[in-house]
Amino acid sequence: MNEPTSHSGMPLRHARPVGPMRETDMGHHRTRNPDGTVRIDVTPDNAGWDFLSFAVVELEAGDAHASTRPGEETAVVPLSGAGVVRAGNQTFEISRTSVFEQMPHIVYVTPGDPIEVIASEGGFEFSIGSAHAEGKYPTRLIEPSQMKQELRGGGAAYRHVNHVLAPPVKAERLILYEVYVPRGTWSGWAPHCHDGRDGSPYLEEVYYFRVTPDNGFVMQRNWRDDEDFDEIFAARDGETVLVTKGYHSSVACPSSHMMFLNYLAGELYDDERTTPPCFDQGHTWIQNDWDRDAWDLPVVRKPE
């Protein structure tokens, strides 16, 4: 068998490690499972945390996904297609053409109500996630008209945020956002953390990424400067990144727009879910003036 060669006909070369390398826990990057109906599956046991579970399920027409979750509130979010959600003694029909075209109708399920999701004609893809709860709020349908929308940031970090299960929408611990980020720009800037340190609340979080066109990718960094923790992930369409601790931000590649769905849960309860994260003070200056020290190109010129 012929060995691969470079453009010049020489054997391929690879740089060898010459110093210590930081380790990234690849268990915090979940790619799509090609088998079965559960494409992404995050649980407290396989994530190493305490509060949050998250899954993406893809069903063909007529197929069903059933679950009963005592002691946990649950949110079912349509991603594409249509389905029927039976929760307790209620039935909801929900659908969505695309996360890039419509806001979701979300089924909130109180702890212990049996859940069955049945795909309609054409199939159904949805997320389902849960967190510890006592049953304060009833099973119900949350409609887009109830969801707060905002434009946040500026400059190269200007994005659109939908509070799809976040205040003013009531829940015990679950917090859900859908965020839209133009191609080549950032979200989560200034970087923020919610790991219980630096005066921040403790919240576990997943980022479920979608990109359009879908051959693009996003980059996500999770890090702390006060310890040897620095994770960088390249995620493609339909993949998930876990935020287990640290400051974090994400960026879309220049040829694809980015959307992500966040599920969060942790120590914040009920109305405390409005508590903000802690921002990296080394970068917050830009929030006061997104055009400060902006470059006009070219930056340096040949002498005349």
Question: What does it look like?
Answer:
With 304 residues, this protein is mainly beta. The protein has a single domain, classed as Jelly Rolls (Sandwich). The chain has one helix spanning 44-47; strands at 29-30, 38-42, 53-59, 64-67, 72-87, 90-96, 106-109, 115-132, 140-142, 148-152, 159-165, 175-181, 186-193, 203-212, 217-224, 229-236, 240-243, 247-252, 257-266, 278-279. Strands 2, 3, 4, 5, 6, 7, 8 and 9 form an eight-stranded antiparallel β-sheet that branches. A seven-stranded antiparallel β-sheet has the order 1-17-14-19-12-11-10, with no helix packed on it. It starts with 28 loop residues before the first strand and ends in a 25-residue tail after the last strand.
